[in-house]
Structures are given as C-alpha cells and as structure tokens.
Amino acid sequence: MEDLRVEYGSTAALDGVDLAVDEGEFFTLVGPSGCGKTTTLRCLAGFEEPTTGSIRVGGESMAGVPPEARGVGVVFQSYALFPHMSVGENVAYGLRFTEPPAGTTESERVAELLDLVDLPGFADRDPDTLSGGQQQRVALARALAPEPRLLLLDEPMSALDARLRERLRVQVRAIQRELDITTVYVTHDQEEALAVSDRVAVIDDGRIEQVGPPRELYDSPRTRFVAEFLGNNNVLIGEIERSDPPSLRVEGTDDGTDTIPLPFGTAAATPVGDTANAGADTDGGASHSAGERLVVCVRPGRVRVRRGAPRAGRGGDDGNAALSATVESTEFLGDATRLHCDWGGVDLTARTDGRRSFAVDEAVTLGVDPEDVRVVERE
Ligand code: ADP
C-alpha cells in the first residue's frame, strides 16, 4: 500500500498510509475505533477504491481489479453465514468463482476445509446449531476454500466472549501457519494484536504511528500514542535536569520530589547531550541537553515496590531511583497486583506479584532502573 488516502466528503478516513506486508506474514492493524482499520482492509479487498494511492499484491496493481478477481478471502466480524444453507453448502459457496484444486471434488474440498478448522463431520449441520466460535471457523473455511493468496480478517472474534476469543485466536494462528498464508488482521484489541502477530501496525486517526514486531512496539514505542495504547504504561513528561547522571524532572511533581533516571549519559565525565559513551541508550543515539523536554515511559512491571519510605540517602548503586510514594488504590489481578501510587503528586502504577498485598495509604518505595526508562519522543 502506497500513500493510501480515502476521503469521505471532507474527512480523511485514511491519510497517507504506507505499508508493506511480507509473504506468509501475520500482519495486524490495531488502533482505536474509527482510526481507519476497516477502511484499509476494504481497500485491500477491493470493496473500496482509494481516493489516491496504490495497492499492489505480489507486484500486481489492484487498480480497477474487482474483489472476486483479487485472490483474497475475507472474514468479517459478524458470522455472515447463510442460515438457509448447511455448513457444507456455506463452505462450498466459497468455491463459486473457482474450481476446487485439481484432483479434488467439491465435497472432498469442503471436508478438507472442515478438517482444517477442526469441524470434521459438520457438513450437514445447520449454522444456527453452532456456537459463535464454530460459526466463525466455518466462515474462515469458506474464505479459504478458493485458496486465496491473501486472507483478510476484520475483527472476526469481537462478537465472542473472552475465553472463546482466546481459543479461536490460537486456532486461527495455527491454521495461518499451517497454510503459510499471508494474513492481514484487524482488531481494536491491543492484547490480541501483541499475542498473535508477526508484525503490528498501530494506526491512529488515519495514519500509521509505528510498525514492528510486537515486542519492539511494546518495548520501544516511538510515539506517545503507541506508548499509551499498547498495554499499561506510565507515560511521564518532564525536563532534563543536569545532574550526574542526568535525570528527568517530571512535570506536576511537588517541589523536592525525586527525579526519574534517564537511560543515557551515565558516565561521570559525559556531559548531557554526549551519548557516545552511553551503554543503555534506548533513544537511537539521539543526543539530549539539559532543559530539553522529553516524553518517557516505564512499564508498571518494571517498577519495583518495597514497603516503607526510602532509606536515608537516595537512589541505589547504579543511578536507580528510590521514589517515595503512597498507595492510592490496588487491583488484584490474580497473578499480579496492580498498585496505583501517588508519587509527589503524580500517578505511578506498579505491577507486583499477586501474592503481595498492600493497604491503601501505605508508604512504599518505588524502584526504577534507568535502563527501564524509555525515551518516547521530544515534547
Ligand atoms: P475502524 O475500522 O478503525 O473502526 P473505519 O475504517 O471503519 O475505522 O473508519 C474510519 C473513519 O472513516 C471513521 O471516522 C468513520 O466514521 C469514517 N467512515 C467509514 N466509512 C464511512 C462511510 N461510508 N462514509 C463516511 N464516513 C465513513
């Protein structure tokens, strides 16, 4: 997809989208409702002509190519099975524009596909006797029937309850791997996106914010939107303070509150701004100077929690911060406990072992290591 723009009247649903999906890849578009995910998918499927920009599949231009000639299979959010047809007839409907692969009859192909989606022997059933997850697997079998070169999935799990969704996403991923089929998956669920994808594109307001493997997006968000959208995060804005090592004076903290250590300029002789010696630089070698405003983030799971106020003399051995905070509220999550803390007037969230419990108003010390602080962007 190159410089894709889709306009509805005066509003741009897509505002210059460039994306390249690799062959065999499970590629996910994720973003809040209304950001342009479905529009992107509809352009790929051929249901929508972009206002400007181009799409190529396997090097071939899709301009003016109708949906049925694109070699794409689509599964939508709603089950969209024909209620008056049996499960087998629904799957066979996927073959209406193509012959079954050489050497197979239609009914053999249908049986093969029902095996693939783990519904063997379901051909004669009525769709309305199936669970939501089973119906979506029939829809998947129908989309895969003509052996498309590209599989497009538009929130196929969103109508299912949480447990079914988790099971179905594992099944879909396994089928995708088995067939090695290039797949573009749309979801608003960031957890789902991280769980199943080879690569993810985060979209906001018709624009791509960042593209990369799940771990990279999670560990090194490059925009504030990505830092806040993918998983829980502490996003802090502040000004670099010249100290040794440099640290961040966080906006909104009371006078006398500690600062957040920064992951660069750690050598005593290194002035702020000279990152040549910085070992744990997570900011792509960018140089920074005192007074500059930065957006940084620290994952709650990276914030260590100790009971009681910090001991005399601040900080740890390696420039780690020991921040004085008070517990404001706690959430028991089973395997973890989430603590919402007040740190000098600013909220900081920590995620700690579920076996530990804390009381509201309890004094705690929050430990933050410089290498866990990610510089997201300059303000
Ligand atoms: P998503 O799939 O991320 O929820 P969509 O791609 O459906 O978002 O929509 C992107 C934007 O385009 C939204 O602001 C939506 O209201 C608008 N939009 C989508 N389809 C139409 C349409 N047919 N007419 C006018 N506006 C539309």
Structural commentary:
The chain is α+β, with helices and mostly antiparallel strands and 379 residues long. The chain folds into two domains: 2-220, 3-Layer(aba) Sandwich (Rossmann fold), CATH 3.40.50.300; 232-378, Beta Barrel (OB fold (Dihydrolipoamide Acetyltransferase, E2P)). The chain has helices at residues 37-45, 87-93, 106-116, 132-144, 162-179, 190-196, 214-219, 224-229; strands at 2-8, 11-17, 26-30, 52-54, 56-57, 60-61, 72-75, 150-154, 182-187, 199-204, 207-212, 234-241, 247-250, 260-261, 293-298, 304-307, 321-332, 336-343, 346-353, 363-368, 374-378. It has a six-stranded mixed β-sheet with strand order 7-8-9-3-10-11, with helices on both faces. A five-stranded antiparallel β-sheet has the order 14-13-12-15-21. Helix 2 (87-93) runs parallel beside helix 4. 38% of the residues are buried. The model is unreliable at 266-282 (pLDDT under 50). Residues 8, 13, 31, 33-39 line the site of adenosine-5'-diphosphate. The complex is composed of two ATP-binding proteins (WtpC), two transmembrane proteins (WtpB) and a solute-binding protein (WtpA).
Low-confidence stretches: 266-282
Bound small molecules, deduplicated: adenosine-5'-diphosphate
Please state roughly what percent of the residues sit in beta strands, choosing from under 5%, 5-15%, 15-25%, 25-35%, 35-45% or over 45%: 25-35%
Strand order of the largest sheet: 7-8-9-3-10-11
Structural classification? alpha+beta
What fraction, in percent, of the residue positions are helical? Answer: 10-25%
Q: How many helices?
A: 8
Overall geometric form: elongated
Q: For the record, give the distance between the C-alpha atoms at the N and C termini, rounded to a whole number.
A: 30 Å
Radius of gyration: 25 Å
Number of distinct beta strands:
21
What does the main sheet amount to? Answer: 6 strands, mixed
**Into how many domains do the coordinates divide?**
2
CATH class term of the largest domain: Alpha Beta
CATH architecture of the largest domain: 3-Layer(aba) Sandwich
CATH topology value of the largest domain: Rossmann fold
Mean pLDDT: 90
What is the chain-wise order of helices and strands? Answer: EEEHEEEEHHHEHEHEEHHEEEEEEEEEE
